Amino acid sequence: MTQRPKIKDVARRAGVSPTLASFALNGREGVGEETRQRILAAAAELGYRANPYARALRTGSSNSFGLLIRNLSNPIFLDVIAGAQEAAVSSETTILIADADYSFERERQHIERFAAHHVDGLAIAPVGPGESVDLWRDLRPGAPTVVLYATAPGLDDVIRVGPDARRAVRLAVDHLYELGHRDIAFLTAPRELMADHDRLDEFELACADLGLPPRPVFTPLNLAAVMERVTALLDSPTPPTAVITNSDYTAHGVYLAARERGFTVGRDLSVVGHDDLPTAELLDPPLTTIRMDGRALGRALFDRLSGADADRAGDGDPGDGAGRTEPVDHAEPVELVVRRSTGPVR
Amino acid sequence: MTQRPKIKDVARRAGVSPTLASFALNGREGVGEETRQRILAAAAELGYRANPYARALRTGSSNSFGLLIRNLSNPIFLDVIAGAQEAAVSSETTILIADADYSFERERQHIERFAAHHVDGLAIAPVGPGESVDLWRDLRPGAPTVVLYATAPGLDDVIRVGPDARRAVRLAVDHLYELGHRDIAFLTAPRELMADHDRLDEFELACADLGLPPRPVFTPLNLAAVMERVTALLDSPTPPTAVITNSDYTAHGVYLAARERGFTVGRDLSVVGHDDLPTAELLDPPLTTIRMDGRALGRALFDRLSGADADRAGDGDPGDGAGRTEPVDHAEPVELVVRRSTGPVR
């Protein structure tokens, strides 16, 4: 097969005009059932595949979704992608993935590219509070937008999907408090890059409840920056006795910094991660972390992007969201997994 | 901006016909320089973006490349993707990523989708020996094909990019032999899924050179399958004293199996990984592995996909590939990093 069959080949084989063949293949009305079946059979026999560019020009839809990640270096996003693709397999949908690498400029470029490709919806783990979502909505008004791992304050008409951030922070703080820690550092992005204010808000609330001074540490959340910042922290006159991170990925930077400065994790410095990556239990020492099902998060993301969630909600149990036709936000449940990276304060 | 400017808006602003505007914006000949400048200025003022679908229909090119990965769960591919995107940033190119998840069927579906989207080239880490590359070439004859992490025997006109697999295997076997190991298991994919015969060939050669019985272990290379297979191996009457894996990712499965069966890694069972992921040095015990620069691999991949390699080669040093106009295969250098997961045989 070196020549792609074209619609005129399908039409010839079915004995109809190309226009009629096109109508049938695109499910438009005005084609008799028997003729439609004959055209579909001819298309199947020839292995005809519709040209998505032609379809996109005609319908404005490309049967694809964009997934724009602020930091694809973090392996948790692999689970999220796997879950989304799992959900997408049965529908004829392509998920296009791109990495903003913590750059506002690259984020905007990717959004422009996605919009130009006519993706039908955008899921975005934004670099900052989500200003580039406005660009997306200017370019593709009405297309669904799912905001991932972000509070996105001030954005209406977006669906939010992420872990239960407030509960995750509270679990970590309470666990460390019970171990006797009173000086807890909390790693968070610089304000201008911060996507999820809920984490910091909840940390400050939890500290207030427990009478602790909050100690947020603002740092870009890539591995090198975390390592450098935590090394400086451990060199300070009053290093914290514990560190809460936003991911196992950044927790690796804390391990590296602790090792560099001769602090033993779990004894001199307690560390709490987030995500329970496959490696978390294999680290030295095994990492106390917040477990979250990244694949489930990815499935929830796809359902909301594609509208499957709203469809299901409409058919749902009368006692459980009946009549709901709009997708709703999704907070993935979290739980604390205690391992040896956290211990009693010394 | 709720209405995308169209080419006719650009034409009106520049005071030319839409056809002339289109010619100028697509760099075709027959447009006077002053007129061309006026049209480009009008396009810039209006924020006009070419519609890639229209361009793809017209030129057959979409300014995008497909990257099809057999197992996106392995974090090394994040580095490869990051490197490729790094190289792609300066050109106006989108890299579309998809995951075959070790399924031949999904691999073929993704290739059909990529071809239908008119991607200009395909980079593929194939599930098996690369049969689906034939499908790709039927659908997109003449488009460049880069085969990643695979020998792809019998495939002509493909460019191969990967780590120096033969040297990686030899480094691992020699290291274990020097530590006294004479019974070394070698994890490799089942023959029908095997993408890289070089690894197994080299293992058998190295064993023959050293007078060792080769002990290949054929298993699907996902975490669960590796863990199950290695657990069975450790339960056998004659467990090996060392295991060589194809990646740090699969080495995690060996760690989990060893732990489950009460074997201490580095003492009862030596383990060699491949990739030197950021976590390798943080594991308990730190992992002996083959270091490879995944980002450099990704950059090499993009250069070959886009033809940048051939362009550069043509301008190159006379003593160093002068006159070369075709991209060549790339074997990324590897080195052994010895840590505590390997020790003297007991």
From TrEMBL, chains A, B:
Keywords associated with the record: DNA-binding, Repressor, Transcription, Transcription regulation
Top-level lineage group: Bacteria
Residues in HTH lacI-type domain copies: 5-59
Residues covered by region (Disordered): 308-346
CDD domains (alphabetical): HTH_LacI, PBP1_LacI_sugar_binding-like
Family matches, as SUPFAM superfamilies: lambda repressor-like DNA-binding domains (SSF47413), Periplasmic binding protein-like I (SSF53822)
GO molecular function: DNA-binding transcription factor activity; transcription cis-regulatory region binding
Protein name per its UniProtKB record: LacI family transcriptional regulator
